Fold this protein.
Amino acid sequence: MTVVAVTGGTGAPGATSTALALLLTWPLPAGRRVILIEADPDGGSILAGALQGRVSAEYGLHQLGVAHRQGNLVDAFFRQLVDLSDGRRERLLLPGLVDPTQASGLAYTWDPISQLAAGLGNQQIPHDVIVDLGRRGTTGASAIAARRADLVLPVVRGTLPSLAQAQPRLAALRNDLDTHGTGSDSIALVVIEEGRYSRQEIGKHLEAPVLGLLPFDPERARVLSAGEGDTGKRFLRSKFMRAARTTAEAALALAAQRRMRLAPRPAPGGELASGPQPQAQPTGDGWAQAAAYIRKPTPAEAGVEVEPTLRPAGEEAGHVR
């Protein structure tokens, strides 16, 4: 089970579009699912953008603060998910905040949400999780999501302004992960290929490995950011989406390697040696509710109209069998 946090910066480098592309191309072996949590404290954009307002604004992250205070976080979490995979419940979205002022109501909920995300791989149907932290999500209360993630993927462009603004942000992020997380080696860059700087130059300048390259393709990006354009086979087979698939595969492989390296190893005598310990999971009957999620009715069966405009990557891209 993998948790990946995606973050951006000033100048709209494309973090949310990248996170959504990863959701739609994430490799899903039989019996696995993936969830995108739109956790940008400045507010979400997918409902009004990619989904063109076709899903009610009642769905979303802002519902979880009250649910947490009422002791009903896990059940509320699953009820807020929007299915972007034509009823198969394979690719799921938790929409972001409708209003940035709602972020204050989640101050004490980010930690339980990040614990929930970390435990979703242990359920009857395991889930991978992508967390879109936007521009400011790696600081403040929501930073716990980056600290607990297997990988943190800053999105940058190969232009001087993008690299200049990314450098101090990455320095602060690196320090925070070394101090409060599992280490700054969780950072790997996703580069939008705009500008004159090469992959090697970007990695050297920002002192981080480049995990993936996404072509600079405004037409395809608008499908993800604004819901404009064709979302059919041509889109799914585009160079942009193929690159997103390659990036997702690389993220899964790197996260698995990193978990193996950080896992405590048996010491002589069979006891576990000291080292990073598994994250604690929420207690109570919430996990039973999560395991029972597969038996919940679909939104259509429950009488809720959900008509997302995006379709998942299908058999054409080799994602669904």
User: Anything to note?
Assistant: Strands lie at 3-7, 33-38, 82-83, 91-94, 127-134, 151-157, 189-193, 210-215. The two ends are 20 Å apart (CA to CA). Residues 158 and 196 are 6 Å apart (CA to CA).
